């Protein structure tokens, strides 16, 4: 079992992405229940991911497996699947990798920042371009964004 321990924030200055190259992701959600089932495609790679219900505001179990891209794309097109597209940028800051997501389609103009941690009590020095914390706010997780679009403020 792997644990995903992360915090999520709004990005306050999209200009920090100027000149950076990101990676395009398609994320489709296939099922919600005892676990959340997601398929992700980035370039010539794809993964099937299962996520447990949250164990805390920052932590849940996560299992991820590489799968063929063609299979992932076929899964993403299944009736009932819902998806989002985004470009992810990786920015190193004071010993942590910050993942900045710029969303596309109906979420155009939305930017978020995630940082994964080794433990819940890990101290993370936030850069000045990281704003309001969204950790644990249901409308802001990627599954909710894919299903419902922009969250209420």
Please, could you describe this protein's structure?
The chain has helices at residues 69-76, 142-148, and strands at residues 2-11, 23-32, 35-42, 45-52, 59-66, 82-93, 96-103, 111-116, 130-133. The protein contains two helices and nine strands. The termini are far apart. Strands 1-5-4-3-2-6-7-8 form an eight-stranded antiparallel β-barrel. It has a single domain (2-148), classed as Hypothetical Protein Pfu-838710-001 (Beta Barrel), CATH 2.40.320.10. With 153 residues, the protein is mainly beta. The chain is globular and about 40 Å long. Pfam families: CYTH (PF01928). InterPro entries: CYTH-like_dom_sf (IPR033469), CYTH_domain (IPR023577), NeuTTM/CthTTM-like (IPR012042). This is CYTH domain-containing protein. It comes from Curvibacter cyanobacteriorum.
Task: List strands and helices in order, with pairings.
Layout: E1 2-11, E2 23-32, E3 35-42, E4 45-52, E5 59-66, H1 69-76, E6 82-93, E7 96-103, E8 111-116, E9 130-133, H2 142-148
Antiparallel strand pairs: 1-5, 1-8, 1-9, 2-3, 2-6, 3-4, 4-5, 6-7, 7-8
Which tags fit this structure?
153 residues, mainly beta, Hypothetical Protein Pfu-838710-001, eight-stranded antiparallel barrel, 9 strands, 10% helix
Q: Do you know the CATH architecture?
A: Beta Barrel
Instruction: Strand order, main sheet: write it out.
Output: 1-5-4-3-2-6-7-8
CATH class: Mainly Beta
Oligomer: single chain
Give the C-alpha Rg: 15 Å
Count of DSSP strands? 9
Q: Tell me the helix content.
A: under 10%
Domain unit count: 1
Task: Please describe the biggest sheet, giving its number of strands, its sense, and whether it closes into a barrel.
Answer: 8 strands, antiparallel, barrel
């Amino acid at each position: 079992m792997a644990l995903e321990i992360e915090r999520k924030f709004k990005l306050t200055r999209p200009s920090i992405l100027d000149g950076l190259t990101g990676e395009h992701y398609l994320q489709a959600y296939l099922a919600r229940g005892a676990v959340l089932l997601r398929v992700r495609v980035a370039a010539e790679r794809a993964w099937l991911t299962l996520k447990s219900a949250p164990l805390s505001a920052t932590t849940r179990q996560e299992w991820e497996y590489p799968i063929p891209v063609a299979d992932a794309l076929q899964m993403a097109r299944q009736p009932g699947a819902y998806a989002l597209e985004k470009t992810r940028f990786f920015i190193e800051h004071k010993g942590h990798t910050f993942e900045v997501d710029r969303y596309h389609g109906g979420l155009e103009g939305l930017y978020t920042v995630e940082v994964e941690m080794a433990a819940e009590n890990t101290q993370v020095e936030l850069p000045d371009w990281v704003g309001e914390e969204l950790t644990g706010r249901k409308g802001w997780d990627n599954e909710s964004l894919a299903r419902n679009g922009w969250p209420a403020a």
